[in-house]
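Protein of interest.
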Amino acid sequence: MSRKSRPQVSLLPLLWAPRERASRTGLSIGTITEAGLALADAEGLEAVTMRAVAAKLGVGAMSLYTHVPGKPELVALMSDAVLARTYEGKGLPAERPDWQAAVRHMATCNWELSLAHPWRLDLKPGHEVMGPGLVGKYEAELAAVDGIGLSDVDMDLAVALVQSHANSAAAWYLGVRRTEAQRAMTEQEWWESVSAEWGEVGPALGEAMGDATTYPLASRVGEASALAYQGSDPQALFRFGMERILVGIDALRDEASNPNA
């Protein structure tokens, strides 16, 4: 067994243990996880320490260790709990009328999950442990592409691609909406603030760059994009990529059904 696999194996019993089984102190894995989640959502992952979680619960830090060995294990529990809620109140992807609608729904729910819990974007990809939240989410998302003509390996890759695109687009979106004040704005308010800022930056940038012949493509495409996005859908990158992914999956289905074409 490699060193990399040992932490995963050691975490499995904790992740699959009953979350609500309380000790005599009233603490449980579930209550500790929820306290960590509240801190991470409000202040970011750096704010999550065993001491801070204990203070939020009104107990001594040492009382947490009976249930959760430390911060790495707590973060794994928090991440798995979030993943388990991906489709809560939204319906499962496979409940949509066709596979394209199912994949769009999958992408949108992953996008919304990242926006609601941006601290998860700081976690290293591929290091999540197979807890019930992750496994349940994976099962639900595979069902969205099951029976549409893809091999099992291509089904796995398609789901991973949709997740990756949704997460990266959400990270870009959160990065552009840099401050908490901006994130609290409605999308229309935010676009109006961006337009006002561009009204100041645009002329200065044009003067610094010189005439349009110096950077002809950047000038032409940048101007066209600015005009197209102003006051429109700020999720343009996410939606554009998602539609291209759907085209790619459809082409893969055609290849599978016509291997000699």
In short: Confidence is low (pLDDT under 50) at residues 1-5. The chain has eleven helices and no strands. The CA atoms of residues 68 and 74 lie 6 Å apart.
